[in-house]
Amino acid sequence: MKKLPVVSRTHVFKNRKQILKNPIPFHHDNFNRLGDTFEVAVGLKKRIIFTRQAKFIKQILQTKQKHYQKSSLQTVDLAKYIGRGLLTSNGEHWRNHRRMIQPAFHKRKLQGLLQIMYQAIKGELSKIKAGEIQDIYPLMGDLAFQVVATSLFSRDDIQVQMSALKEITEANQRMLIQEMRQPYLNWWYKFSGKINRHIKLSLKARAILSSIIKERLAQDSEKDDLMDMLLKATYEDGSRMPEKQLIDEILILFAAGHETTANALGFILFLLAKHPEKQEKAFAEINAIDWTEGIEMESLRKLAYVKQCIEEGMRLYPPAYYIDRESIIKDEIEDYEIPENSMLLLAIYELHRDSRFWESPNAFQPERFDPANKRDYSDYYFPFGGGPRMCIGNNFAMQEMILTVAEILRSFTLRPVDDEVLINPLISLKPVSVKLHFIPR
Q: Which residue, among 220, 214, 249, has the nearest Cα to 233 in the 3D structure?
């Protein structure tokens, strides 16, 4: 078996400022120098395997997924802030709760949330000032958070609590990024009490959600929202989810659900603004639908080109630009041995722009996802992950993004202010800002 090429600790330390700010160029250079798979030394003994090799990524996520699990980056580091929910657990704990929660995100269940989601989107988009230049990214963050909140709780009188929850979620994410990118300072973060301060913030978030859950239970009334579905979910023995676990799952929905969708929408709207011919093609499709009676699921299915724009946007800017895994047993890929307990980072951003799989990989071409093209991208397209651990909210997110893009383009022509959008890779891939000119139609 061949040995993987290694990026030395010295090279990592020399580039520590760049890595902290944006690690994508650093690792892109490593891929170009060392090949599709390599190791990065991050401690005295610890190494992380990076790969953009399509076969390897599919093997880890799908064909040999039982040999891998979520790494300690999520099950320990992230879990200390948001608990042990679907995103941050492994094994039987994960399987049990996946079975419980999955029905809440079936497409037929999402039909019942459609009007709740649509009203939340319309309410947030009313803040756009016609004829002016506006940074759409903060608005997309508010919109995505509000969609999750209203879909969960069916309430519009908890804005103060939701605002506090949003601030805590974002503050803890910033802390976690520092821990992940500066592991050599983790001793200081613990010694100085910085980590403990953020854990106390998490306790505050949990208290907010606990009070909302208790109010719902005291009402003893049924509502067709996600909270109702979670409250009714049962284990195999018929028992209900305890409050602690319920809060863990809700925190996961807020942390993962709003952040990734907001990021994707920011990039997608920029791409549409930059490509007016694609934007007008999407508008023609949107304009052919009768919106006077609101929106129905059947109408949503007719927005095929809008969906293609979203799929292409998530190819170029995948929210989960790296996916983490840890090997449970020894494995191998081609001529390389993967030792047991190895941490792996799957470079989805690199894979989605690989010219071996994508023609004109850096170009925005929604037509490549037209079913008429009959091209199968499933071996190298993972915007929502893959295999059994594919994002449980992928249909929810797609429905939300289609509605948002359609509602914006129905009212405005978008024009970009900047030639490019700067990226800010945190836990998910974020745009720094997305300044657009909103011209009334």
A: 249
Residue 73 pLDDT more than 90?
Answer: no
Do 428 and 141 contact (CB within 8 A), yes or no?
A: no
**pLDDT given for residue 284 in this prediction:** 96
Contact 100, 388 (CB under 8 A): no
Distance CA 73, CA 160 (A): 31
Tell whether pTM > 0.90.
yes
Domains of the chain by start residue, with CATH:
6-440 (1.10.630.10)
pLDDT tens string 216-266: 888 877 787 888 888 888 888 889 999 999 999 998 888 888 889 999 999
